[in-house]
Design goal:
Length: about 240
């Protein structure tokens, strides 16, 4: 196993409560084909250890990280719309990774890579420290039941780990369609000393143009459902 970065406290690296459930079932034959055919182009492996963004993408650029991209359409659209930036998605479910790579290949993208693994492990073992320009977490599982709230990925230790991979001035952008989770995110982030709220203390942020509307979100808007965006920038000291 690669040596873990000593800049990150053991308390952040160690995690016993998972924020996701690995869904059962295998990939379809088509999904497996897309996964196998495109992995050599887009895949990054946890076992390869610490990466260098300039080496991975062959250039110096602003790098955007996204955890839990689902089936990948939104992330691919962002990569298409911002060719000057590079994007790394992290998703634990292979069918979503297969779909993202298929969409990326169809769009002939060269500024997108993907991990199929637990984001906490990838962040601790693979991502450069203080280097990414943005970290995105859109519509994570809200874990509605109170007894399951501890499984929500946005917790103080997670916020600290995100800060560790962001460069000064980099943004941590969250979005959720579940108001109690938005309030939880706000409570966690407002207590952090390493961030400033881009919208102002205690305020939610209007949806920025660079975050595409998902089909689910569009349907929710038609039904009058709310969506809450939170954007926090990492302080320089």
């Amino acid at each position: 196993m690669p040596e873990q970065n000593k800049d990150i406290p053991d308390s952040i690296i160690k995690r016993t409560i998972r924020s996701f459930v690995v869904r059962g079932g295998r990939m379809t034959e088509g999904q497996q084909k897309h996964y196998d055919n495109n992995w050599a182009i887009y895949g990054l492996a946890l076992a390869d250890g610490r990466i260098d963004y300039a080496t991975v993408f062959g250039r110096q650029s602003d790098v955007v990280l996204e955890v839990g991209f689902g089936m990948g359409a939104s992330l691919v659209e962002m990569a298409k719309n911002a060719p000057e930036k590079d994007f790394i998605g992290i998703e634990v479910h292979p069918p979503g990774v297969a779909k993202l790579m298929m969409l990326a290949k169809d769009a002939n993208l060269s500024n997108l890579r993907v991990y199929c693994d637990d984001a906490i492990e990838v962040m601790a073992q693979c991502l450069p420290q203080s280097a990414a320009s943005a970290f995105q977490l859109f519509f994570p599982d809200p874990w509605h039941k109170k007894k399951h709230n501890k499984r929500r990925i946005v917790q103080p230790l997670f916020a600290q780990q995100v800060a560790a991979v962001l460069k000064a001035g980099g943004h941590f952008h969250m979005a959720t369609d579940w108001q109690p989770y938005a309030e939880h995110m706000m409570e966690v982030m407002e207590s952090q000393t390493q961030y400033d709220n881009a919208a102002g203390k205690g305020l939610y942020h209007p949806r920025p143009e660079w975050r595409p509307l998902t089909k689910f979100e569009q349907r929710g808007e038609r039904l009058g459902h709310g969506v809450w965006d939170l954007i926090y920038s990492k302080k320089s000291n």
